[in-house]
Amino acid sequence: MNDESKFDRLFGGNFKLKDKKPDICPFAEEFSKWADELCSGIDDLDIVDINQAKLQLLDKYFSWVQSVSKSHRYRVNPKGHICIYHVFSDTYFKLRKIELSLHPPALLPQHLTGIPQPQIAGIFIGEKEEENETNS
User: Fold this and answer.
1) Which residues have a Cβ under 8 Å from the Cβ of 15 and sit 6 or more positions away?
2) What is the DSSP string of 71-124?
3) Whether 121 contacts 110, CB under 8 Å
4) How many Å apart are CA 26 and CA 34, to the nearest integer?
5) Alpha-carbon torsion 111, 108, 47, 85, what sign?
6) How far apart, in whole angstroms, are the C-alpha atoms of residue 57 and residue 76?
């Protein structure tokens, strides 16, 4: 008897894994439609447009937080259903990825990338002699 037949005998033979998507609440579904529309065609935009999209996303998220029921406001746990926070987070990171592809972060801060110039601090001791043009 092979392993599959033992498994079928133990669990009834009709055991199949379903490709089940996580449930999404109606609020998150509406917010997701708006967020997809916000991100459509943003790949060819500049950094100012991306920052404006991020601000629009933030404003829209907090307006949704104020309008949904209390049980959906601060649902950040990945278990259960997908809620507005998950849509906000996914969209924000999508925008951040596009932003970083346009302007990747520098490996070192700007002031550390050049050769440091010597800074002279203190008092010079001595006097500078001036040459006279009179040769008498």
Assistant:
1) 7, 8
2) HHHT---SSS-B-HHHHHHHHHHHHHHHHHHHSPPPSS-GGGSSPPPPPP-S--
3) no
4) 13
5) negative
6) 17
What H or E segment, with its residue span, contains residue 11?
A: helix 3-11
Helix (H, G, I), strand (E, B) or coil at 42: coil
Phi and psi torsions of 15, nearest 5°: -90, 115
One-letter amino acid for residue 111 of the chain: H
pLDDT tens for 71-107 read: 777 777 777 788 889 999 999 999 998 888 887 776 6
Taking only the tens place, the pLDDT of each residue in 14-26 is 655 555 667 888 8
pLDDT in tens, 42-61: 767 788 888 999 999 999 99
Predicted TM-score (pTM) of the model is 0.61
